[in-house]
From TrEMBL:
Domain of life: Bacteria
Membrane-crossing segments per the record: 7-23, 29-47
Name of the protein this chain belongs to: Membrane protein
Record keywords: Membrane, Transmembrane, Transmembrane helix
Species of origin: Alkalibacillus salilacus
The keyword Membrane is assigned to this record: yes
Length: 58
């Protein structure tokens, strides 16, 4: 797991917390944010691998 991919899960949690607090449902927002973070993490990993594969070696 790359370092950028590792930030997707807690980042999603905090975004969900903020949205949940806006709607006065902080717990539901955290769960929603964690779920989205877990779903987006492999997608970010695919993009990371593709970008590193396309770059020439230095």
């Amino acid at each position: 797991m790359d370092y950028r991919q590792a930030y997707v899960i807690p980042g999603g949690m905090f975004v969900g917390l903020g949205i949940g607090m806006f709607f006065d449902q902080a717990g539901a927002g955290v769960i929603l944010g964690l779920g989205l973070g877990f779903l987006l993490s492999p997608i970010v990993g695919l993009f990371e691998r593709r970008m590193s594969r396309d770059q020439p070696n230095k």
